Amino acid sequence: MTIKQMIQENNRLRERMTPANRDYVEDVIIAVRSTRADRQQAEKKLLEVASDVLKAQEAGRTASQLYGEDPAACARSIADALPKRKAIEGAAYYIMIPWAAFTFLFLVEAVFGLVAEWSGYAGEPINRISLLALIVLAAGSILLTELVTKTLNKPGSDEGSSKPKIDLKAIGVYLIILIIVMIIGFSMRTMLPVFTVNPWVSLVIGLVGLAGLRFIFLRRG
Protein backbone atom coordinates (compact mmCIF):
# COMPACT_ATOMS: atom_id res chain seq x y z
CA MET A 1 0.00 0.00 0.00
CA THR A 2 1.10 3.56 -0.60
CA ILE A 3 1.40 6.06 2.25
CA LYS A 4 -1.81 7.74 1.10
CA GLN A 5 -3.70 4.43 1.05
CA MET A 6 -2.42 3.51 4.51
CA ILE A 7 -3.52 6.88 5.90
CA GLN A 8 -6.97 6.47 4.36
CA GLU A 9 -7.31 2.95 5.78
CA ASN A 10 -6.14 4.17 9.19
CA ASN A 11 -8.83 6.86 9.08
CA ARG A 12 -11.52 4.28 8.28
CA LEU A 13 -10.41 2.05 11.15
CA ARG A 14 -10.41 4.91 13.66
CA GLU A 15 -13.96 5.85 12.72
CA ARG A 16 -15.06 2.47 14.12
CA MET A 17 -13.32 2.94 17.47
CA THR A 18 -14.73 4.14 20.75
CA PRO A 19 -13.83 7.76 21.62
CA ALA A 20 -11.25 6.65 24.20
CA ASN A 21 -9.55 4.23 21.81
CA ARG A 22 -9.61 6.78 18.98
CA ASP A 23 -8.03 9.44 21.20
CA TYR A 24 -5.32 7.01 22.27
CA VAL A 25 -4.46 5.99 18.70
CA GLU A 26 -4.47 9.59 17.49
CA ASP A 27 -2.05 10.58 20.27
CA VAL A 28 0.25 7.79 19.12
CA ILE A 29 -0.07 8.88 15.49
CA ILE A 30 0.82 12.51 16.26
CA ALA A 31 3.84 11.50 18.32
CA VAL A 32 5.20 9.00 15.78
CA ARG A 33 4.74 11.31 12.82
CA SER A 34 6.67 14.06 14.60
CA THR A 35 9.78 11.85 14.83
CA ARG A 36 12.41 11.16 12.18
CA ALA A 37 11.10 7.63 11.60
CA ASP A 38 10.89 6.52 7.98
CA ARG A 39 7.47 7.66 6.75
CA GLN A 40 6.56 4.49 4.83
CA GLN A 41 7.48 2.19 7.72
CA ALA A 42 5.86 4.52 10.26
CA GLU A 43 2.52 4.56 8.46
CA LYS A 44 2.67 0.78 8.07
CA LYS A 45 3.21 0.34 11.80
CA LEU A 46 0.51 2.90 12.67
CA LEU A 47 -1.93 0.99 10.50
CA GLU A 48 -1.02 -2.19 12.41
CA VAL A 49 -1.64 -0.37 15.69
CA ALA A 50 -5.06 0.83 14.54
CA SER A 51 -5.98 -2.66 13.35
CA ASP A 52 -4.81 -4.28 16.60
CA VAL A 53 -6.72 -1.76 18.72
CA LEU A 54 -9.90 -2.36 16.72
CA LYS A 55 -9.55 -6.13 17.12
CA ALA A 56 -8.92 -5.70 20.84
CA GLN A 57 -11.98 -3.45 21.08
CA GLU A 58 -14.14 -6.13 19.50
CA ALA A 59 -12.81 -8.53 22.14
CA GLY A 60 -13.71 -6.10 24.93
CA ARG A 61 -10.23 -4.69 25.57
CA THR A 62 -9.09 -1.07 25.36
CA ALA A 63 -6.08 0.46 23.64
CA SER A 64 -4.52 1.28 26.99
CA GLN A 65 -4.87 -2.35 28.07
CA LEU A 66 -3.22 -3.44 24.84
CA TYR A 67 -0.36 -0.92 24.62
CA GLY A 68 -0.11 0.57 28.09
CA GLU A 69 -1.61 3.59 29.81
CA ASP A 70 0.78 6.14 28.27
CA PRO A 71 0.33 6.69 24.50
CA ALA A 72 3.51 8.80 24.42
CA ALA A 73 5.54 5.88 25.76
CA CYS A 74 3.90 3.61 23.20
CA ALA A 75 4.80 6.05 20.42
CA ARG A 76 8.42 6.25 21.58
CA SER A 77 8.78 2.48 21.57
CA ILE A 78 7.32 2.33 18.07
CA ALA A 79 9.54 5.13 16.72
CA ASP A 80 12.68 3.66 18.33
CA ALA A 81 12.08 0.36 16.53
CA LEU A 82 11.60 1.96 13.11
CA PRO A 83 14.38 2.86 10.64
CA LYS A 84 15.21 6.56 10.63
CA ARG A 85 15.39 8.98 7.73
CA LYS A 86 19.00 9.71 6.85
CA ALA A 87 20.34 13.03 8.12
CA ILE A 88 21.29 14.10 4.61
CA GLU A 89 17.66 13.69 3.58
CA GLY A 90 16.60 16.09 6.29
CA ALA A 91 19.21 18.67 5.23
CA ALA A 92 18.33 18.24 1.55
CA TYR A 93 14.67 18.76 2.37
CA TYR A 94 15.31 22.18 3.89
CA ILE A 95 17.59 23.13 1.00
CA MET A 96 15.02 22.02 -1.57
CA ILE A 97 12.25 24.29 -0.23
CA PRO A 98 13.99 27.67 -0.77
CA TRP A 99 15.60 26.24 -3.94
CA ALA A 100 12.12 25.68 -5.36
CA ALA A 101 10.97 29.12 -4.19
CA PHE A 102 13.97 30.83 -5.81
CA THR A 103 13.43 28.84 -9.01
CA PHE A 104 9.84 30.04 -9.22
CA LEU A 105 10.88 33.63 -8.42
CA PHE A 106 13.51 33.80 -11.19
CA LEU A 107 11.21 32.17 -13.74
CA VAL A 108 8.53 34.76 -12.95
CA GLU A 109 11.13 37.55 -13.14
CA ALA A 110 12.27 36.21 -16.52
CA VAL A 111 8.75 36.10 -17.93
CA PHE A 112 7.86 39.63 -16.80
CA GLY A 113 11.25 41.00 -17.83
CA LEU A 114 11.15 39.47 -21.32
CA VAL A 115 7.56 40.59 -21.90
CA ALA A 116 8.57 44.10 -20.84
CA GLU A 117 11.56 44.07 -23.21
CA TRP A 118 9.49 42.83 -26.14
CA SER A 119 6.88 45.51 -25.38
CA GLY A 120 9.54 48.22 -25.57
CA TYR A 121 9.38 48.99 -21.86
CA ALA A 122 12.58 49.73 -19.96
CA GLY A 123 12.09 47.03 -17.38
CA GLU A 124 14.93 47.71 -14.94
CA PRO A 125 12.57 48.16 -11.95
CA ILE A 126 10.98 44.80 -12.81
CA ASN A 127 14.37 43.09 -12.88
CA ARG A 128 15.58 44.43 -9.53
CA ILE A 129 15.82 41.83 -6.77
CA SER A 130 16.76 42.72 -3.22
CA LEU A 131 18.72 40.49 -0.90
CA LEU A 132 16.04 41.21 1.70
CA ALA A 133 13.39 39.71 -0.58
CA LEU A 134 15.50 36.57 -1.03
CA ILE A 135 15.99 36.19 2.73
CA VAL A 136 12.29 36.66 3.47
CA LEU A 137 11.35 34.30 0.61
CA ALA A 138 13.71 31.58 1.88
CA ALA A 139 12.53 31.85 5.49
CA GLY A 140 8.88 32.23 4.53
CA SER A 141 8.90 29.22 2.19
CA ILE A 142 10.39 26.96 4.88
CA LEU A 143 8.01 28.19 7.56
CA LEU A 144 4.97 27.87 5.30
CA THR A 145 5.95 24.34 4.26
CA GLU A 146 6.49 23.34 7.89
CA LEU A 147 3.13 24.82 8.83
CA VAL A 148 1.29 22.92 6.10
CA THR A 149 3.17 19.69 6.88
CA LYS A 150 2.45 19.88 10.60
CA THR A 151 -1.22 20.61 9.92
CA LEU A 152 -1.56 17.72 7.47
CA ASN A 153 0.12 15.39 9.93
CA LYS A 154 -2.68 15.92 12.42
CA PRO A 155 -4.91 12.82 12.33
CA GLY A 156 -8.05 14.87 11.80
CA SER A 157 -6.44 16.53 8.77
CA ASP A 158 -5.54 13.33 6.91
CA GLU A 159 -7.26 12.71 3.67
CA GLY A 160 -10.56 10.99 4.22
CA SER A 161 -11.32 12.74 7.49
CA SER A 162 -14.50 14.77 7.56
CA LYS A 163 -13.34 17.06 10.37
CA PRO A 164 -10.00 18.68 9.57
CA LYS A 165 -8.13 20.10 12.55
CA ILE A 166 -6.01 23.23 12.40
CA ASP A 167 -3.07 23.51 14.76
CA LEU A 168 -3.54 27.12 15.88
CA LYS A 169 -0.53 26.90 18.19
CA ALA A 170 1.75 25.90 15.29
CA ILE A 171 0.29 28.67 13.12
CA GLY A 172 1.01 31.21 15.85
CA VAL A 173 4.59 30.02 16.36
CA TYR A 174 5.43 30.07 12.66
CA LEU A 175 3.85 33.49 12.14
CA ILE A 176 5.80 34.93 15.06
CA ILE A 177 9.06 33.52 13.68
CA LEU A 178 8.29 34.89 10.22
CA ILE A 179 7.47 38.32 11.64
CA ILE A 180 10.75 38.34 13.57
CA VAL A 181 12.67 37.45 10.39
CA MET A 182 10.90 40.22 8.48
CA ILE A 183 11.57 42.78 11.22
CA ILE A 184 15.26 41.89 11.29
CA GLY A 185 15.39 42.01 7.49
CA PHE A 186 13.67 45.37 7.20
CA SER A 187 15.86 46.83 9.93
CA MET A 188 18.83 45.92 7.73
CA ARG A 189 17.25 47.00 4.45
CA THR A 190 19.62 49.95 4.01
CA MET A 191 22.57 47.62 4.52
CA LEU A 192 21.40 44.91 2.12
CA PRO A 193 22.17 45.25 -1.60
CA VAL A 194 19.72 45.29 -4.48
CA PHE A 195 20.62 43.49 -7.71
CA THR A 196 19.51 44.15 -11.27
CA VAL A 197 19.24 40.79 -13.02
CA ASN A 198 18.83 40.61 -16.78
CA PRO A 199 15.68 38.62 -17.69
CA TRP A 200 17.73 36.20 -19.80
CA VAL A 201 19.97 35.57 -16.79
CA SER A 202 16.85 35.05 -14.65
CA LEU A 203 15.61 32.54 -17.23
CA VAL A 204 18.88 30.60 -17.12
CA ILE A 205 18.87 30.60 -13.31
CA GLY A 206 15.26 29.39 -13.32
CA LEU A 207 16.01 26.58 -15.79
CA VAL A 208 19.06 25.52 -13.80
CA GLY A 209 16.85 25.52 -10.71
CA LEU A 210 14.31 23.27 -12.43
CA ALA A 211 17.07 20.90 -13.51
CA GLY A 212 18.37 20.81 -9.94
CA LEU A 213 14.93 19.99 -8.59
CA ARG A 214 14.52 17.19 -11.11
CA PHE A 215 17.95 15.57 -10.98
CA ILE A 216 19.20 16.38 -7.46
CA PHE A 217 16.21 16.50 -5.14
CA LEU A 218 13.48 14.55 -6.96
CA ARG A 219 15.54 11.77 -8.52
CA ARG A 220 14.26 8.27 -7.88
CA GLY A 221 16.30 5.64 -6.19
TrEMBL record:
<dbReference type="InterPro" id="IPR009214">
    <property type="entry name" value="DUF1129"/>
</dbReference>
<feature type="transmembrane region" description="Helical">
    <location>
        <begin position="91"/>
        <end position="116"/>
    </location>
</feature>
<keyword id="KW-1133">Transmembrane helix</keyword>
<feature type="transmembrane region" description="Helical">
    <location>
        <begin position="128"/>
        <end position="149"/>
    </location>
</feature>
<protein>
    <recommendedName>
        <fullName>DUF1129 domain-containing protein</fullName>
    </recommendedName>
</protein>
<keyword id="KW-0472">Membrane</keyword>
<feature type="transmembrane region" description="Helical">
    <location>
        <begin position="170"/>
        <end position="188"/>
    </location>
</feature>
<dbReference type="Pfam" id="PF06570">
    <property type="entry name" value="DUF1129"/>
</dbReference>
<keyword id="KW-0812">Transmembrane</keyword>
<feature type="transmembrane region" description="Helical">
    <location>
        <begin position="200"/>
        <end position="217"/>
    </location>
</feature>
